[in-house]
């Protein structure tokens, strides 16, 4: 089922698109630090992003990977490109108050002729490009005029290739299996951390033909009173009869993600929750139908808003965001949001997590799908009953 | 078994220690962004660190939590301190190229009287303090002289309280249970992602009396030829007879971590691996005996080096690092390293992950323990056979 590893030709085409945008932005170089962007361009994939590492992309000539020596020695095991000549900074530079790995990297880039005057982009919102890395490059290569990249590589990632869509379908199958495991595991008296155990096992195991990679975010259980608060992680609290939880999880395959959320009521739901669920699912369905080429996220949000308004409801936060490759702590691409003022023109093979999360006071309801933008409206990659799921208590 | 939540009095004592160091460094304020540091000072704990958030600590007066509005509304569910008046930035500021949440936070801090001239620390190596956050604060509050904090809060975390040691003992029990699950699960033909599934389930489930929290790093399996490369995540490759793997995992409880590594051979090990294992375990034992108050990491490393030298071996990378609270992507504290030139005086209740990882060409061996520095040498928090573990194939 898996389409095999990404081809070198596809990686080269990605690099060409990045360089096209670099020319448009008048950049002579780009410092890529987001591990999702490094993977996208090189294939390099390891849990090494907790120490400084970059891919330096000059406008011409070979990009340069730079990372800790311990990791550099094994970079060839995953990197399809640029692994022949990785810069590995010495172990002694790890966690020093008065020296920094990126100062060493700056010297090495200078030796290789990259310290020439020009506008060089950096990723100002990337999670793993620390301020000290930025300052070390600024001080080490004063010839560079460092400018914020405005998520340049992330925007190149927006429209997926057929190979990428194949990975995301597999990720969707993993997500659907994990959600089935979650729903099956819910029973009275079961602690939330045991539900997490079942979900995480299902996420790593995957399903027949689709093995699971690690998701960028742990499964979330918004339970009981806490169902009004997103992003809380699990506790050992026991699932009680006549209570409800929202479950947020993802399936991952080769770092591609398909998130999926559902709410489950153990026993008959309250009238408030039941009513909220009905309105939210109807709104989501209306939104999904609008996710087709030529529309905008604003159009999609308008369809959602119109349904919710009929029920006297409104959602302040965005209805979704672009997805693809993910590393902790996020599976979003930080580009297109499904919200009222986003006027990006949708194109076929953009992929989104459409998440209708309604967090009321003391209760909440969530239903989401991972989708591909397609001519007939959303091509849904995930598979779970699109409703409030009620289990006998 | 759990000692309950941290007390407000303990949080206040932590704040006082941070302020003592701020006075020593002549800081009038400190911008704390590392989620481990925010948790340490406030108790706030959610998977919200993928969007900008800080705890601003003035030298006097109440610290201020600032985060996305969606998360701010539920901050009181975990924060023991500073949750009464959280600054929640509006949803519209998420992922904008020309506006930034930290610009809004800067305005709010100004309105509250915090934009006064002074030296204000920032965490230059924190993973979740992006360059754009730094630049927005610099531009929004030009009165501040922003200086690198040199891991100020992390250093305060170095010596653990009795409450913290109790959490780490529970984390150690979770780790030991997860390692037993890993060893039990290894068999010929089993894919590595299925081993990961067993480990992750055991990590979340925990053991009797110690429920599992999510570890900051996913389990690692350095398998076959790849056993010479740390930090690779799992694949669906099947465990073969007469092969070996190194397993790196942690147990976590209330965000406190106890990492643990072992190597397992399925079938008789090669002579090279067997010899390497013997030398490494002997070296680790020598190092553990030196982990007592008054010694330094340099003393510990010398004991290790002396054993390895007798076998003609040497380890270039460090032998361990301080541990405690962890969030993805790392469970280390980024302060004391067990290496030749670290002369920090060890004190009782410092806690370390001592990891004797030897990555040779084409094979490797790892054995580690999480320990507390104690008068008689290391008080070991983890429990697994300290040797190369050989299973019948």
Automatic annotation (TrEMBL), chains A, B:
Gene3D superfamilies: Creatinase/methionine aminopeptidase superfamily (3.90.230.10), Creatinase/prolidase N-terminal domain (3.40.350.10). It comes from the Bacteria. SUPFAM superfamilies: Creatinase/aminopeptidase, Creatinase/prolidase N-terminal domain. InterPro entries: Creatin/AminoP/Spt16_N, Creatinase/aminopeptidase-like, Creatinase_N, Pept_M24, Peptidase_M24B. CDD domains: APP_MetAP. Residues 167-368 form the Peptidase M24 domain. Residues 14-159 form the Creatinase N-terminal domain. This is M24 family metallopeptidase.
């Amino acid at each position: 089922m898996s389409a095999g590893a990404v081809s070198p030709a596809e990686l080269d085409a990605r690099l060409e698109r990045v360089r096209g945008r670099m020319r448009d932005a008048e950049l002579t170089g780009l410092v890529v630090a987001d591990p999702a962007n490094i993977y996208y361009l090189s294939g390099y994939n390891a849990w090494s992003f907790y120490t400084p590492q970059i891919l330096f992309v000059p406008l011409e000539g070979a990009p340069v990977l730079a990372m800790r020596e311990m990791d550099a020695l094994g970079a060839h095991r995953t990197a399809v490109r640029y692994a022949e000549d990785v810069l590995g900074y010495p172990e002694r530079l790890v966690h020093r108050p008065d020296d920094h790995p990126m100062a060493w990297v700056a010297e090495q880039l200078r030796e290789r002729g990259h310290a020439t005057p020009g506008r060089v982009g950096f990723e100002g919102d990337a999670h793993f490009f620390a301020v000290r890395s930025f300052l070390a490059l600024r001080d080490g290569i004063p010839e560079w005029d460092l400018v914020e990249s405005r998520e340049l590589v992330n925007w190149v990632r927006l429209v997926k290739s057929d190979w990428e869509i194949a990975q995301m379908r597999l990720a969707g199958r993993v997500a659907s299996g994990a959600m089935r495991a979650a729903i099956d595991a819910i029973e009275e008296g079961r602690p939330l951390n045991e539900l997490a155990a079942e979900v995480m096992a299902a996420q790593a195991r995957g399903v027949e033909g689709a093995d699971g990679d690690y998701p960028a975010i742990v499964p979330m259980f918004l339970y009981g009173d806490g169902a009004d608060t997103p992003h809380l992680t699990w506790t050992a609290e026991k699932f009680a009869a006549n209570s409800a939880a929202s479950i947020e999880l993802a399936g991952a395959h080769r770092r591609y993600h398909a998130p999926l959320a559902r709410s489950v009521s153990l026993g008959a739901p309250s009238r408030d929750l039941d009513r909220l669920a009905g309105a939210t699912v109807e709104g989501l369905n209306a939104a999904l139908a609008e996710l087709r080429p030529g529309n905008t996220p604003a159009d999609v949000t308008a369809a959602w808003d119109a349904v919710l308004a009929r029920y006297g409801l409104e959602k302040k936060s965005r209805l979704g965001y672009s997805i693809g490759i993910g590393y902790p702590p996020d599976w979003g691409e930080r580009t297109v949001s499904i919200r009222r003022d986003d006027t990006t023109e949708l194109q076929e093979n953009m992929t989104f997590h459409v998440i209708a999360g309604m967090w009321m006071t003391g209760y909440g309801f969530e239903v989401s799908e991972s989708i591909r933008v397609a001519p007939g409206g959303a091509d849904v990659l995930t598979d779970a009953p699109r409703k409030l799921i009620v289990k006998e208590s």
